[in-house]
Amino acid sequence: MDAANLILIRIDQREKAADKVQQLLTGYGCIIRTRIGFHETDPKECASGGLIILHLTPGAEADKLKSELSGIEGVRAGKVVF
For every one of its 82 residues, what pLDDT tens digit does the chain have, with 9 covering 90 and above? Predict the structure, then answer.
């Protein structure tokens, strides 16, 4: 079994960063096997922060994607190989 390449993304200001993150993930869409997103919800208000977990294909450009995500204001990204 191949190692699982994961990118963990924390978005602190979704309303400012979401469009840029979405554009970047769309550009890397062919290497993303699974994408899971979490954010707090409330009937009165959506939370401004969120978490995205990406499972990438083996040998994917994970370091490049992580670097580009981290370059977006309000976004932190980390790589995990499991």
Answer: 678 899 999 999 888 899 999 999 999 999 999 999 998 777 777 778 899 999 999 887 999 999 999 999 999 999 999 8
Question: If we measure between CA atoms, which residue out of 43, 40, 44, 64 comes closest to residue 54?
Answer: 64
Query: Which helix (DSSP H) or strand (DSSP E) does residue 68 occupy?
Result: helix 62-70
Tokens of 14: 């979704």
Residue boundaries of the structural domains of the chain: 5-81
Q: Does domain 5-81 have CATH number 3.40.50.300?
A: no
> In DSSP terms, which residues pair with 6 in a beta bridge?
55, 80
